[in-house]
């Protein structure tokens, strides 16, 4: 026994000192597929690149509305729009395992998928999961603490003997069914007793391709939180640039659950516990364009402390949304620094655009989080909206500010749930 654990320790030590891959210790990695990639079943060949991008950009605005804050005490009745999340992942449920393509959602907790017998389901690719044919499927007891945390029923045992979940969305659509535990397979890991929702009824405007949602939020019943029984409470991702070409890509974005070795040159900022704990909140202090620093507070009252947890970091939103005042100052400063003729966004979504060839140099732009300065590159700031035009991939919002996925491209972004820290490290994600 002692000998074998020593062997394991030595093996781990060898792995963690091996160079190259930042994956270390106890962790596993999966691929993330952008929904607009040609490999994705969402891919619509009839749309041009700019149309696809236009859709993704517009989704940012509908997404931003959902971050208004949930009603207190109803975390699982989240006010979320179902057509969200920009990345897909493979996950297998049950024994024998049933593989589904699900939306990876850092903005929700409970994972769910459509199950048999479905009284009302939308069409999705592949067959429906049949809980009866899985030997590891186990409904959650209505008297359990798990059920009390998830069910919106005051007395979950009153109607049915099994625990029921109900998720409703801002547009009136909903998903409901049974809370159960199942063995799931993610990458090369088999994970037992994972709480999820087996949905027997869905209504509304669900996207007809994905079979369900994998919740990667910060709440107790998100997949990441539950994975703590298997790997340390951390996950990270490395996002490759927005899919531009119509060629099959052999590169994909990556997500790692568990330990990751950031090495030198990483910066970290505290994750702030704000209700609902589903979202990953950080504290935005300001943004610099060159040496010009723009602070979030207006300094009319310097004794007023900066609000902690004033921004969320989300992989499912494409644009970065800044508070209106800060956005306006930022756009002006950037425009002054670039100092070439601006253009109109052909799709009328974004506000600061240029002819791509005219933007020969982009000033240094730094996002100042509490304790972490994140330096953005051209690819994080500007998005190619048509053949010749690039636009600033930022927008103003009166809702909760969001750091979107374009600003996170080619960073290793690590969420440490145990130590409540978020880290960034500049990385070539295509080489990971
Ligand atoms: C999901 O699995 C299918 C079939 O094995 C594979 O072709 C596809 O590349 C996988 N997608 C991701 C995102 O891992
Ligand atoms: C749930 O607990 C209550 C009180 O302990 C008990 O009366 C009831 O029979 C239990 N219900 C089920 C379905 O186990
Ligand atoms: C789901 O909701 C529908 C409509 O409100 C209801 O008829 C059905 O009984 C619910 N199903 C479950 C399993 O809760
Ligand atoms: C912005 O905030 C930083 C840190 O709090 C401070 O050092 C700096 O003086 C402020 N700059 C301006 C222009 O207000
Ligand atoms: C400035 O903020 C402090 C703390 O919030 C508050 O007590 C004070 O009244 C404010 N002063 C002014 C002039 O608004």
Structure description:
The protein folds into two domains: 9-256, Cathepsin D, subunit A, domain 1 (Beta Barrel), CATH 2.40.70; 262-431, Beta Barrel (Cathepsin D, subunit A, domain 1), CATH 2.40.70. Helices cover 15% and strands 34% of the residues. The chain is built from six helices and 27 strands. It has helices at 2-17, 49-66, 145-150, 223-226, 324-338, 378-381; strands at 23-34, 87-93, 98-105, 112-114, 138-139, 164-168, 174-186, 189-203, 212-215, 234-238, 253-260, 267-270, 281-282, 284-289, 292-295, 311-313, 320-323, 342-343, 353-355, 365-369, 372-376, 382-384, 389-392, 394-397, 402-403, 411-416, 421-426. The strands form five sheets. Strands 2-3-9-4-8-7 form a six-stranded mixed β-barrel. A four-stranded antiparallel β-sheet has the order 15-14-20-21. It is globular, with a radius of gyration of 22 Å. The site of one 2-acetamido-2-deoxy-beta-D-glucopyranose has 3 residues, from loops.
Low-confidence stretches: 1-20, 69-84
Annotated CATH architecture of the largest domain: Beta Barrel
**CATH topology description of the largest domain:** Cathepsin D, subunit A, domain 1
Overall pLDDT:
82
Tally of domains: 2
List keywords for this structure.
432 residues; alpha+beta; Cathepsin D, subunit A, domain 1; six-stranded mixed barrel; four-stranded antiparallel sheet; 15% helix; binds 2-acetamido-2-deoxy-beta-D-glucopyranose
């Amino acid at each position: 026994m002692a000998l074998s654990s020593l062997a394991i320790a030595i093996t781990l030590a060898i792995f963690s000192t091996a160079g190259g891959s930042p994956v270390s210790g106890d962790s596993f990695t999966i691929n993330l597929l952008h929904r607009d990639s040609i490999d994705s079943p969402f891919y619509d060949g009839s749309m041009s690149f700019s149309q696809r991008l236009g859709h993704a950009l517009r989704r940012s605005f509908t997404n931003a509305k959902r971050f208004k804050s949930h009603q207190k005490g109803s975390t699982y009745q989240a006010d979320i729009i179902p057509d969200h999340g920009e990345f897909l992942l493979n996950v297998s449920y049950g024994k024998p395992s049933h593989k589904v393509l699900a939306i990876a959602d850092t903005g929700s907790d409970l994972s769910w998928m459509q199950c048999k017998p479905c009284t009302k389901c939308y069409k999705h690719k592949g067959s429906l999961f049949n809980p009866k044919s899985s030997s590891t499927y186990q409904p959650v007891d209505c008297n359990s603490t798990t059920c009390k945390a998830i069910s919106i029923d005051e007395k979950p045992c009153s109607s049915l003997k099994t625990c029921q979940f109900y998720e409703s969305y801002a547009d009136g659509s909903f998903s409901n069914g049974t809370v159960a535990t199942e063995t799931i397979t993610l990458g090369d890991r088999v994970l037992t007793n994972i709480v999820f929702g087996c949905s027997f009824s869905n209504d509304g405007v669900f996207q007809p391709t994905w079979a369900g949602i994998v919740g990667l939020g910060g709440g107790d019943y998100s997949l990441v939180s539950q994975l703590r029984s298997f790997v340390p409470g951390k996950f990270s991702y490395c996002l490759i640039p927005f899919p531009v070409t119509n060629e099959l890509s052999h590169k994909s974005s990556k997500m790692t659950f568990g330990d990751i070795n950031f090495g030198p040159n990483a910066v970290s900022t505290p994750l702030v516990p704000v209700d609902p704990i589903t979202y990953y909140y950080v504290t935005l202090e300001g943004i610099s364009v060159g040496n010009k620093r723009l602070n979030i507070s207006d300094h009319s009252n310097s004794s007023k402390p900066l609000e902690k947890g004033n921004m969320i970091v989300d992989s499912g939103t494409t644009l970065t949304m800044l508070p209106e005042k800060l956005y306006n100052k930022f756009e002006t400063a950037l425009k002054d620094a670039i100092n070439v003729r601006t253009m109109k966004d052909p799709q009328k979504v974004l506000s600061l655009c240029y002819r791509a060839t005219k933007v020969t140099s982009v000033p240094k732009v730094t996002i100042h989080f509490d304790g972490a300065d994140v330096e953005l590159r051209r690819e994080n700031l500007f998005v190619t909206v048509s053949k010749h035009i690039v636009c600033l991939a930022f927008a103003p919002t009166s809702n909760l500010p969001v750091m979107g996925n374009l600003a996170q491209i080619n960073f290793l972004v690590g969420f440490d749930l145990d130590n409540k820290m978020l880290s960034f490290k500049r990385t070539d994600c295509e080489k990971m």
